[in-house]
Amino acid sequence: MQKVRDHISSMLNHHIYNRLDHRWIGVTAALISALGYGSGAIASKHVVTHHTGPITATAFSLLFGAILVLGLFYKDLISDFKSSPTKAWIPVIFTGISASIGVTFWFLSMVKLPLVVSAPLVGAYPLVSIILAWIFIRRLDRITWKTICGAILVVIGITLVSNG
């Protein structure tokens, strides 16, 4: 009986440890992402205001981003490319096109608006993600009342910042 209890305890501890470990990795990745987007916004505003247009800035920022990703993750990219079915690339292509459109129009907005207005408006993209997730991938992501309340707070925050 003691062996069974120890085994169950070990399995639960391992499960909890793995879950916490993945959560911290996710939180760390999200914070690094926020740092990248935040610093990128400052640099982008400077570039599109003083040096070049938003379309050129988009093209080069995506090009240099692609070079960085290729350089850092070359082996993973080759492995994934070889092992993924052809139909899996359709959403990847759509994601690239969507991201390109998002970056292009963000840069365009920076030309016409102060960054402190443009960035929060662009930061409303989670609202779009929540709505699209609810429509298209309900079985993969759960929309809870906490999510809806958080989305409402985002809208209130964007309204306050944009009108401030």
Overall description:
With 164 residues, the protein is mainly alpha-helical. The protein has 2 domains: 2-113, no CATH class; 123-164, no CATH class. Helices cover 87% and strands 0% of the residues. It has helices at 2-50, 54-83, 89-112, 115-122, 125-136, 145-163. It starts with a helix and ends with a helix. The model has no long low-confidence stretch (mean pLDDT 81).
Output the keywords.
164 residues, mainly alpha, 2 domains, 6 helices, 87% helix
Count the DSSP helices: 6
The Rg value, from CA coordinates, equals: 21 Å
Number of strands: 0
Name the shape in a single word.
extended
Proportion in β-strands: under 5%
Give the helices and strands as they follow along the chain.
Answer: HHHHHH
Helical/strand content category: mainly alpha
Mean of all residue-level pLDDT scores? 81
Number of domains: 2
Distance from N terminus to C terminus (CA atoms, Å) equals 65 Å
Low-confidence parts, pLDDT < 50 over ≥5 residues? none
Question: Approximately how much helix is present in the residues?
Answer: over 70%
Outline the biggest β-sheet: none
Task: Give a brief description.
This protein has 6 helices and no strands.
Give the helices and strands, then pairings.
Layout: H1 2-50, H2 54-83, H3 89-112, H4 115-122, H5 125-136, H6 145-163
Helix pairs in contact: 1-3, 2-3, 4-6
